[in-house]
Write a structure and sequence with these properties.
Blueprint (H helix, E strand, L loop, with lengths): L8 H11 L6 E4 L4 E9 L2 E9 L5 E6 L12 E4 L4 E9 L2 E9 L5 E10 L10 E6 L19 E8 L6 E10 L3 E6 L13 E2 L2 E8 L3 E14 L2 E11 L9 H4 L4 E2 L3 H4 L3 E5 L20 E5 L2 E4 L21 E6 L10 E7 L14 E3 L12 E5 L2 E8 L6 E3 L21 E8 L4 E8 L2 H7 L10 E3 L7 E2 L7 E6 L8 E3 L1
Parallel strand pairs: 1-6, 2-5, 11-18, 12-16, 15-17, 25-30, 26-29
Antiparallel strand pairs: 1-2, 2-3, 3-8, 4-7, 5-6, 6-7, 9-10, 9-22, 10-11, 10-15, 12-18, 13-14, 14-15, 14-19, 15-16, 19-20, 21-22, 21-31, 23-32, 24-25, 24-27, 26-30, 27-28, 31-32
Length: 501
C-alpha cells in the first residue's frame, strides 16, 4: 500500500523467498487498488480467496515492521464490520512486505469475489444475505469501577443509509437488532450534515412519529432513505429520525404514559434500531383509519402537531419486506455462551427464510402467532409456565433478559440492579404453544449481582431475568437466542406470522 512506511529491501527479499514456500500473505496492487486475501474471518464465518477493491478513501491506521524470523507462518485476516476495520497480518505490495496492518475502510470499498466460505451462517455462492452481529458494550462502552456503563445482552449490526437513488451514503454502526418491532430508526446526532434524506409530507406538512414503549418513547421525523444491510437493499423507504433536539413540542398523546424520551444515544443505548419483527409495518391498517388508533403519526408545523392517519405507503415499514428478494423473514444465529457470561460475542443475521441454501427452515419448530387484532394473542403465542397460561408471549431480541413473573426470582440491589437475583441458580421449563404446535424450552436464571461481580467485562449472558408484575405475557429476550437459530417469519397476504427455533 503506497501509504505505508517501507521496510528494508534486505528483509523484503528474504520474506519474498519465504512467501513462495510456506507463507500466506495478502497481495495488494497499488494501481487497481485490488487486495487479494487468501483467508479472512468475519463474525463466525471464514471466507477464502477473497478479492476486494479498497477504493481510494481508505486509511492505514497501523503498520508494523519486524524481522523476517518473526513473521507468521499462517495468516488469516479479520474484518470488523462494526468499526469497518480490516486487520491484515501480512501483505505483499510489489517487492515490499508489511505486517500487522490495520486499514479503516471508506465508502468506496467493495467485495469483488469470494471463492469459498466455512462456518456459521455463510454461503460461498450467496453471502449477500448475511450481516454480522456483535453483542458488546455498545456505543456507550465506558466501564467505571463499581458501576456498569454500556450495554448488556444487546445484539448490534451495521446499517448503511443513503440519500435515495444516490451514492451519498453513511454507515451507522451499533444499530440494535430488534425482532420485537418493525422499522428502521436512527438517532439524529449520528447523521452527517450532508446526508440529505427527504421529509415525508402530508397535506404540505412534515410527518412525525411517536413510538411508545412500556416506560419510554421515541419522537422524530419520518424521512425517505435507501437502507442497505449486508448485500440487501430497501430502496426509498420511510424511516424515523429520532430527534435529540426537535423543533416540535412532543404532543401530550405521545408522552402521556409518563415515560422518558429516549432520544439520544446515551438514553437509547444504540445509534439506531433495526426493527425486523413479524409485522410488515410499524403501525399498519389501524393507522390508516380516521381517527387513527393508536395515535402514532402526526403532521407538524412549527410547534403544533396533529395526529393523522397515514397510508401504508408512507408508514415506516419493516425494511426486509422491501428487499427485492430474501424478503419474508430473518434468522438470528448466536453461539452458546458460558454460564458465567462472555465478552464481545459474534453471530450473524441472515435475511430470508427458505429463499437460499443458507436460510432453510429445516427441522425448526414453528410457532404460529395470532393474527386477530382484537385478541390478546395478536402477534403473540401462549407460554405455559408454572401453571400460568400466558397468552400474550413473544420472542424479542431487543430485550436483554427473560421477563416474567415468579416469586423465586427476587430482585438485585448491587451491580445487577433491575435484574433478578434468586437465592440459588434456577433451572426452569416452559412450553410455548402456537396455533397448531408446541415446544418445550429449558432455561436457566442466575443471580445477576454474582454474574456481574464475577465477570465484570462480560457483555453476553444466557441466564438473566427480570421480575415482572403478574400478567399475561412471557418475554423471551436475547438469552433465548444463544445457541439457537431463531427464525422470524413476517406476516403477508398468504403467510401467517411465526417464530421458529
Amino acid at each position: 500500500m503506497r501509504k505505508m512506511k517501507i521496510i528494508s529491501t534486505y528483509i523484503a527479499a528474504i520474506v519474498s523467498i519465504m512467501l513462495s514456500s510456506s507463507l500466506y500473505a495478502d497481495t495488494y496492487n497499488t494501481s487497481t487498488h485490488i487486495l487479494i486475501i487468501p483467508a479472512i474471518q468475519s463474525g463466525l464465518a471464514t471466507y477464502s480467496d477473497v478479492s476486494v477493491d479498497l477504493g481510494t478513501d481508505y486509511q492505514v491506521t497501523a503498520v508494523q515492521a519486524s524481522a523476517a524470523s518473526d513473521l507468521p507462518i499462517l495468516t488469516v485476516d479479520n474484518y470488523d464490520a462494526f468499526n469497518n476495520l480490516l486487520t491484515i497480518p501480512l501483505v505483499s505490495v510489489g517487492d515490499q512486505i508489511y505486517q500487522n496492518v490495520e486499514v479503516k475502510l471508506g465508502r468506496t470499498f467493495q467485495v469483488l469475489s469470494v471463492g469459498g466460505c466455512t462456518g456459521v451462517g455463510c454461503s460461498a455462492a450467496t453471502p449477500v444475505n448475511v450481516a454480522p452481529l456483535i453483542v458488546d458494550n455498545g456505543p456507550v462502552s465506558l466501564l467505571l469501577p463499581g458501576q456498569l456503563v454500556g450495554s448488556t445482552n444487546v445484539a448490534f449490526t451495521t446499517v448503511t443509509l443513503c440519500q435515495p437513488g444516490t451514492s451519498n451514503c453513511q454507515n451507522i454502526d451499533h444499530v440494535l437488532v430488534d425482532t420485537g418491532s418493525s422499522g428502521f430508526r436512527v438517532i439524529s446526532s449520528q447523521l452527517a450534515q450532508n446526508l440529505n434524506l427527504p421529509a415525508v409530507m402530508s397535506s404540505g406538512k412534515a410527518v412525525f412519529e411517536c413510538l411508545q414503549y412500556v416506560s419510554s418513547f421515541n419522537w422524530g421525523s419520518v424521512n425517505m432513505a435507501d437502507v442497505k444491510i449486508a448485500g440487501e437493499v430497501a430502496s426509498n423507504i420511510p424511516i424515523q429520525i429520532i430527534n435529540a433536539n426537535s423543533n416540535n413540542s412532543v404532543p401530550r398523546s405521545c408522552s402521556r404514559n409518563g415515560g422518558a424520551a429516549t432520544n439520544t444515544v446515551d438514553t437509547f443505548g444504540a445509534n439506531g434500531i433495526l426493527g425486523i419483527g413479524n409485522l410488515p409495518y410499524d403501525c399498519g391498517d389501524v393507522c390508516t383509519t380516521s381517527p387513527p388508533i393508536p395515535a402514532a403519526y402526526y403532521s407538524c408545523s412549527g410547534n403544533t402537531c396533529q395526529s393523522i392517519s397515514l397510508p401504508l405507503a408512507q408508514q415506516v415499514p419493516n425494511p426486509i419486506v422491501r428487499f427485492s428478494k430474501d424478503n419474508n423473514g430473518s434468522i438470528i444465529q448466536l453461539p452458546e455462551v458460558p454460564f458465567a457470561g462472555a465478552s464481545n460475542v459474534q453471530g450473524v443475521l441472515i435475511f430470508g427464510i427458505g429463499t437460499q441454501s443458507n436460510n432453510e427452515l429445516g427441522n425448526a419448530k414453528v410457532i404460529t402467532l395470532g393474527t386477530n387484532t382484537l385478541d390478546a394473542n395478536y402477534n403473540a403465542f401462549t407460554t405455559i409456565y408454572n401453571g400460568q397460561k400466558l397468552t400474550g408471549s413473544f420472542v424479542d431480541s431487543g430485550t436483554s433478559a427473560y421477563y416474567f413473573s415468579d416469586s423465586l426470582l427476587g430482585s438485585c440491589s448491587g451491580l445487577g440492579s433491575g435484574y433478578a437475583c434468586p437465592k440459588s441458580n434456577l433451572s426452569l421449563t416452559a412450553t410455548n404453544q402456537g396455533l397448531s404446535s408446541s415446544s418445550t424450552v429449558n432455561f436457566d436464571v442466575a443471580n445477576a449481582d454474582m454474574l456481574f461481580n464475577n465477570n465484570y467485562n462480560a457483555t453476553a449472558f444466557s441466564n438473566l431475568a427480570v421480575q415482572t408484575a403478574p400478567g399475561s405475557s412471557f418475554d423471551w429476550g436475547l438469552p433465548f437466542f444463544y445457541g439457537r437459530s431463531v427464525f422470524t417469519g413476517i406476516q403477508t397476504s398468504t403467510s401467517l406470522p411465526y417464530i421458529a427455533y
